[in-house]
C-alpha cells in the first residue's frame, strides 16, 4: 500500500460453509485465534457483534517478530452494519501511544457456493495522522497474512 493508495481489496475462498466463516468473524473466542499478522497473538479480543457494538483487540508481537517482540498494537472499532452470513461493516482505529492514529472502514462480504465460502474484504482509510505511517505501510501485508491465518484456522 503506497502513501497514495487509501483502499485495499482482498478475497479468499474457504472450504467451509458460510455460517462457519461468518462465525469465525463474529465469535470473539474464534477471532482471538486468527486475527492479526503472522507472529501475533491477541491477549485481548472483545467483540459485540451487533449494529452499534464495539470491538477492542490488542495484538501482541511474539518471538518470531524478533526486535518487535512484546510490542502491543491495540485497535478499537464499532460494528456499523451486520447481516448474518452476508456482510459485516466496521470501523477500525489503530492506537499508538493511547491515541487513534489511523481509522479505516472495513466491509466484509460473504458468498457461499457449493459448500465453499468466498469473502471479499474492502478496507478504506478514512482518517490518518503522521503517526499512521507504520500501520499504513504494513496494512496490505498484515491483512494478507491475517486472511491466510483464517484460511488455515478454518481448514482445521
Total strands: the figure is 7
Largest sheet: 7 strands, antiparallel
Provide the CATH topology: Alpha-D-Glucose-1,6-Bisphosphate, Chain A, domain 4
Please tell me the overall pLDDT: 93
Overview of the structural elements:
- The protein has a single domain (7-155), classed as Alpha-D-Glucose-1,6-Bisphosphate, Chain A, domain 4, CATH 3.30.530.
- It is an alpha+beta fold and 156 residues long.
- It has helices at 18-26, 28-34, 133-137, 139-155, and strands at 7-14, 40-47, 54-61, 72-83, 87-96, 99-113, 116-128.
- Strand 2 and strand 3 form a beta hairpin.
- A 7-stranded antiparallel beta sheet has the order 1-7-6-5-4-3-2.
- The longest helix is centred in the last third of the chain and has 17 residues, at 139-155.
- 24% of the residues lie in helices and 47% in strands.
